[in-house]
Records
---
Amino acid sequence: MINGTRHTKAPIRWALIGGGRTSQIGYIHRSSAMRDGMFDLVAGAFDIDAQAGRAFGLELGVSAQRCYPDYKALFNVEAARADGIQAVSVATPNGTHFEICKAALHAGIDVICEKPLCFTSAEAEELRALASDRQRIVGVTYGYAGHQMIEQARAMVEAGDIGEVRIVQMQFAHGFHSESVENNSASTRWRVDPRFAGPSYVLGDVGTHPLYLAEVIVPQLRIRRLLCHRQSFVKTRAPLEDNAMTLMEYEGGAVGYLWSSAVNAGSMHGQKIRIIGSKASLEWWDERPNQLSFEIQGRPAQIFERGMGYLHPVALADDRIGAGHPEGLFEAWSNLYRRFAQAMDARDRGDAGAAKRLRYPDIEAGVEGVRWVENCVRSAERGGVWVDYR
């Protein structure tokens, strides 16, 4: 169980780029990073408007001298300080991720980045090579992977509880953008603009989340080929899609289905993953994250509850308050930030064994997310045809 004690020698000196006053996601980054005392927010470039960013940084307790107008100034000055930052989180629009991550790695700074890591596989491979060369940690905030029942599902699949995996059914299909809400929302407007969002909207924005959950729960599956069909039901969003269905064939014969949507009217979140085996199935729904459904053919369904002693130790390791109390997204993100910090600490101590045991969305997860979106777009642009995964 996590009890808030710090397992690193000292807090990691940390900065945030983006995540300012009007950011949808900035607070969860700050809250999750600092919850266990693993990170200390000492610097930032919080807003594209330098004055607004400085004012917000001061309210957060960051000194005026370390509230920077942009990421370039931040890296230049912090790299020259004896007490400069050791890690940075990138919470800016998608189109800025590649250059900011690249600059951070060149400056010798560990990176935690919003997804997508970048827009193309070539860019992703460049970041992977740079991270390896500089021996830096790169984490990607697939925050739902921090829910402990995801670890329980992985352990059960690995133990053979559901038999041979046949089908992976995934969806992240909410309804909040079933109308053109971007007309009155700046935080949504850039997500449907290819200049800032890249080659996709919902495939990259929501689809990669359950895709990564599948990678965690069933790590042995490798996509052989896929077919993607996408639509822009709100016509002004074209060429970016607000709905897509992706069919996948895995090496070994299993198949996968992933529905990505922002126009599922009436749905609050709609993220689910169901792993169907030859003997039984597992299902997790992020609107009920404390439960995992286990359904054996011919027997009554079972519901596993978060925090209970019958869970696998890897699931209980992420527990923060014990059974009966509901945990949510902030706890899941905190678990990920804790793992990010532990990975950085293990690297600094030269503890390869500890680093290998840690599971978190790393540079490989970032590369795979970019690769998947790229292949989906390639299939859709050819009229929704099967393409070999590359």
---
Amino acid sequence: MRKLLNALYTGSIWLAALFMIGVLVMVLLSMLGRMFQFYIPGTDAYAGYAMAGAGFLALAHTLKSGEHIRVTLIIDKLTGGARRGMELWSLSVAVLLAGLLAVYAWRLAWQSHEFHDISTSADGTALWIPQILMGLGTSVLLIAFLDEWVLEFQRKRSHASVETRHE
């Protein structure tokens, strides 16, 4: 199971990296278009979709790498069972919020599909297509938070990455 979860997080970050390359390509196309007097409709919109996709798809890997910003003002002062209880409570809230975010991201994509919602920019893209990236990213984030919760519950969660940054 650990290999599968790590592969999911790694795949998600690689997909995010590809979307960042997509942002670069769209920006370069837009710049070249201005320089050489040609126009490709939708480059700005596609750059935005790619940026949003990259951001959402990178969330889970960022969490699992210990790179999310944590406010540890209270939790750093706790030890033993109190700290573990606070970690589990914090992760439970994070699971709840990530779950709600995922549900509403998928709901938004579904509603955009149902209402045939399209972009108002020159590209006219069906909005449910780029919104799927938001649903995917938030779903992988939910899985990552559930993974962290289970690891904490089993006392297998590493706190070293968080603690070393404070020194």
